[in-house]
Amino acid sequence: MLKPFVNLADVAFTDIEENGYYTSRRAQFSAGIGARKLGYNLTELPPGKAQCPFHAHRAEEEMFLILEGEGELRYGADRYRIRKHDVIACPTGGHATAHQIINTGSTTMRYLALSNVSDIEVCEYPDSDKIGVHADEPSAPGLHEMFRSEATVEYYDRESNVPPGSDA
Fold it and tell me: How many domains in the chain?
């Protein structure tokens, strides 16, 4: 039986991102303590880095609790100074709720992230005009695709106006 808690000093960092500006370590421990509808992770963000690009979710609402360090929250068109013990709400939506945490301090920032878990998610990336589509199915490969916003097409693009199997 799973123990329904973990001490943050004991979590394992299994998601390591080293991609220039986007450099971080995340310990994803939700399943390990029995969570089913919420996702939890502990993120460590080095000075001058961001964990991910500026983005907005359509299905998953996020909350962040800054445990150590200081930085900047990009939120919609605004920027806010953030520091230890700040609690940040990032509700679902479009460009107005897009968000990004940046470590502008001189020490590693640590924060706890919490979100609901959705089987289907659409993320928008305003800085790069991309859209991410994610759909997971139990025991099957999911759909994880990124698209450029300018590559949109009309609803009937590449659709035939002739019924299947007709000679018309």
Answer: 1
